[in-house]
Design goal:
The chain contains 15 helices and no strands. The protein is mainly α.
Length: 431
Amino acid sequence: MKEKFILSTIILLIGGFLTKILGMIIKIVMTRLMGTEGIGLYMMILPTFSLFIALAQAGFPVAISKLVAEDNKNNKRLVFSLIPLSLLINVVLMIVIIIIAPFLSTNLLHDKRCLYGILAISVVIPLTSLSSICRSYFFGKEKMLPHIISNLSEDIIRLILIIIGVPFVIQKGLDYAVCYVILTNIISELTSILILFFFIPKNAKITKQDLIPSKVYIKDSLNISIPNTAGRLIGSIGYFLEPIVLTSSLLYVGYSNKFIVNEYGIISGYVLPILLLPSFFTLAISQALLPVVSNLYSKNDIKSTKRKIKQGIFFSLLIGIPVTVLLMVYPELLLKLIYNTTEGVKYIKFLAPFCLLQYIQAPLSFSLDAMGRSTDNMKATLYGTISRTSLLFLLSFLKIGIWSLIISTSINIIIVTSYNFFKVKKCLEIS
């Protein structure tokens, strides 16, 4: 078990590092091709994208990973039981997006240029949901290589499409360029799904019985996925409301739309990606942790469960602390090196210490999911989202500009991480 956990972690670390580098390259290319305003427009739409992805996935990936890791079900039938339900949810969401897109872009985001990008989301989410279900099966089996190869292929395809297409599309306007960037996910997700299929064992046989949806399996999955989805949904709603609340409040107190889009682009496009650079490491630890903790906790091996969670937190801090120091001392150098800009230096210096807590949030969150405590995750997200959105609204009226977002984000990190930590501790003590 120990060797498999370490091997899984190493594979995810290497793959996560390469994926993060590719992600940074994609962001750099987008910045160079679309400019700060283009990135700002894309970032205005991204919360909506995240919200509908959370809804479309419905928490099924976590449920599948946990149930497959426990290894007491027909795993093929489990997956085929959830795919039809997932597709039904996605069809409904596609219709909803098409209906609300004009109102959302004009009345909530206050920028008509967001319309085409929001409509593009409806085409992408079904493929994103299907690929996440496929990946979650391999996670449950602790087979991390398929996930890594599919992720890397997905990013490479997306990068190539952006480099080739954006210079032509942007001539028609930034709204067309943003829409095109979102639509590149269609080809990249299809590529990812096809690659995952290649890793299915050649001797694997699918019987008619496997294709028949099981009410018991669906019920077991929903018991895990509903609180998980609720948590993600709450977080996504908060993220979705972020640009709406920020834009509406700052416009009301006298800031210009151009200032808001530009500053929001700096925070979302430059500052947060650099601050969250170590997240590939913590995510790798957390993803490897989920099936291991699920398996150990289901066997009531509390001592080993505690040890694995402590290892996850320790390794997350091992890289988190040096990176935090580096970000606080050399923010100008990193911004110039990666994005060829120095905008956002003061924001990085302020947020860096708080992000140290963010680095251990993922292992704690995944551990709660693995122990069947997704409801606690949901509550943590709820409390953090309420505090963040409320503070964002109130602080905006103090006329401190984008600092309302910076401060509310910091408070959110403290609340969510602290709550998760105490819940994990309490759960293990009770058990």
